[in-house]
Design brief:
The complex is a heterodimer of chains A (227) and B (79).
Chain A: E1 3-7, H1 14-25, E2 30-33, E3 45-48, H2 70-78, E4 82-86, H3 88-95, E5 102-104, E6 112-120, E7 136-143, E8 147-149, H4 152-160, E9 164-169, E10 188-192, E11 198-201, H5 219-226
Parallel strand pairs in A: 1-2, 1-3, 3-4, 4-11
Antiparallel strand pairs in A: 5-8, 6-7, 6-9, 9-10, 10-11
Chain B: E1 2-9, H1 16-27, E2 39-45, H2 51-66, E3 72-78
Antiparallel strand pairs in B: 1-2, 1-3
Classes of the chains: A alpha/beta (227), B alpha+beta (79).
Chain lengths: 227, 79
Amino acid sequence: MRAAVILFPGINREGDAARALRQSSGAEPGIVWHADQDLPRGTELIVLPGGFSYGDYLRCGAIAARAPIMRAVRDHAARGGLVLGICNGFQILCEAGLLPGVLMRNAHRRFICKMQHLRVENAQTPFTRRYQRGQVVKFAIAHGEGNFIADEKTIRAIEADGRVAFRYCDAEGRVGDSSNPNGSTNSIAGVFNERFNVLGLMPHPENLIDPLVGGVDGRALFASLAA
Amino acid sequence: MKARVIVTLKAGVLDPQGKAIEGALKGLAVEGLKSVRQGKIFDIELDGEDRAAARRTLSEACERLLANTIVENYAIEIA
């Protein structure tokens, strides 16, 4: 798996993303600067990591979504290439129109940084095939703006097409207000685009790849991509 | 030419910042407030004096960057 991690000013999770990719594929991912026009030749997977691109100015991800490299990201996605956006990367993909909806300020107004259970909703995609449908996993979340919303029609389409990747839940896999950390519609933590080649999620699978630091539930995502 | 673009959240979209400000104002005992919603103002200077052209330029700026029209409305005021 030839992966490229896009680096925007203010991103701070590129090292974690690169480490997870290295562990799963054995190959060193390229780091691509936002002002570049082109991806490394043969790039199969693009990762937009977490952080605070442009200091979250204007709206989270809004400025990064218009950066020069995004044309190449868009072309890659249009060709069916894989794109993964984590946290700020998810916000950037929504702002770029590559994923539906928008991530608003957490409903309770606080920045959250904690471990969170998620339920795998669709395990038949290049990103999730090493999970089981309904499996409960534990990822880290760390965000102030993760409240996923979209208009009713869009939400209905996302649900009907099986485009919800992960939902916030409790340790038993129950979904509801008490296990929804940020107010996201239908507890949506991650969504696919219509072709299932673009995934955005707020939680951080790249931080759960080593038993020394909290668990390995994130490994299967990177293993799915490397397979 | 000077213009002002006002971006506001659409009705029904939750505005936690507005709520927090509303709570703080009520905490200051500022009387008679029903609700507060927060928006953004952009003061923009434009080349030329063609108002119709300015409006087109600003509409494009709003559609392409200044507003996320999924959740926000925008209004353009040309001085």
